[in-house]
Amino acid sequence: MSNTQFFAYLLVMAGSTYLIRIIPFVAIKHKIENKFIRSFLYYIPYAVLTAMTLPAALYATSSFVSALSGLIVAVILAYRNKSLTIVAVFACLAVYITELIISYI
């Protein structure tokens, strides 16, 4: 890849990223009063994060079963308001133990 091609790609990427972030500020001058739109915008980051994380979490190990067990443990502990460290440690332990059990079967 040549330098000119690289900088052209970089310029397009930077421009598209900038436009995505600046268009809402330019288009919407006042506070959004509609409850539906406010609720929709509130939950967008959570939905996007879930859509990006969940597939990766299910295929991150050598077995779908071990990944699912780690995900279930993580969801249960997070639902019980445990800290991020506790959730991560116990999810990793669940995956490790499940992988050990699967290797003996």
Feature tags:
105 residues, single chain
Fold and architecture overview:
The protein has a domain at 61-105. The model has no long low-confidence stretch (mean pLDDT 91). The longest helix is centred in the first third of the chain and has 25 residues, at 3-27. Helix 3 (64-79) runs antiparallel to helix 4. The radius of gyration is 21 Å and the shape is flat. 82% of the residues lie in helices and 0% in strands. It has four helices and no strands. It has 105 residues and is mainly α.
The parts where pLDDT drops under 50 for at least 5 residues are none
Q: Distance between the terminal alpha carbons, to the nearest Å?
A: 49 Å
- C-alpha-based Rg, rounded: 21 Å
Bin the strand percentage. Answer: under 5%
- Whole-number mean pLDDT: 91
Task: Find the count of extended strands (DSSP E, 2+ residues).
Answer: 0
- Measured as a percent range, the helix fraction is over 70%
H-E string: HHHH
Structural shape: flat
**Helix-strand makeup class:** mainly alpha
Topology:
Layout: H1 3-27, H2 35-58, H3 64-79, H4 84-104
Helix pairs in contact: 3-4
In short:
The chain is mostly helical. It contains four helices and no strands.
